[in-house]
Amino acid sequence: MWPPILNLAWVVPARAPSASSSSGTRFAWTVFSTWMNDRDPEFATKAVAVIELLLSPPTDGPLFCVDEKPGIGVRQPTAPDQPPVPRRPPARARPARREFEYKRNGTVDLLAGFRVNDGQVCGMVRLKHRSREFCELLALLDEQTPVGQPIHLILDPVSSHWSAEVVSWLDAHPQRTFVFHFLPVHASWLSFIEVWFSLLSRKCLRRADFADATIATEQIEGFMTTYNMHMAHPFEWKKGVRFYK
Description:
- The chain is α/β, with parallel strands linked by helices.
- The chain has one domain (about 45-245): Ribonuclease H-like superfamily/Ribonuclease H (Nucleotidyltransferase, domain 5).
- It contains seven helices and five strands.
- A five-stranded mixed beta sheet has the order 3-2-1-4-5.
């Protein structure tokens, strides 16, 4: 007698059992996807509160979407890039090419805030992203905000954002009011900073050549400066509007 099959995925056919099966049947047999169980009964209420902030930012002070992008690879190809070659008949054009192998030089973390009001981004690159570095980001936001205005933050409810060290830092800076608007658990997708991180990855990190952490810091901070000067604009939230309605 054959032993029991421990995992049905081992024996699922590559296609539906019959060539005449419908596309829906083939999809059910061959496709595997993931989902996440909603464990927070107040998820919708919390999400709607964040969406309302994004659609109607506070008028008494700036609203920042804040988060960290950890583990940015500091790596360098083992051979120089090859530039693109234009088409010269009979030869075809060739795009720029990069060596597949690369040398790892560690990682860096980016802590940043996206100002919802005008799309400006401020941030800093560090080797870690603990509460200490988060407090440095708060200090940076404080420096760039006019005196007397409260600073509203949309951020994940992770421990580094509400630790005793953060509370002590806030107590030591009573001249500035920080208002924390925490996202629901597993809802980073509601934050505009995640959209901006995607832009950073496509425009800066995808073709990056970082020999060390110093060069990585210079290029990432240089991209933020260039973005603020030439590309910054308020984001229009659309995905959450459907959820909100």
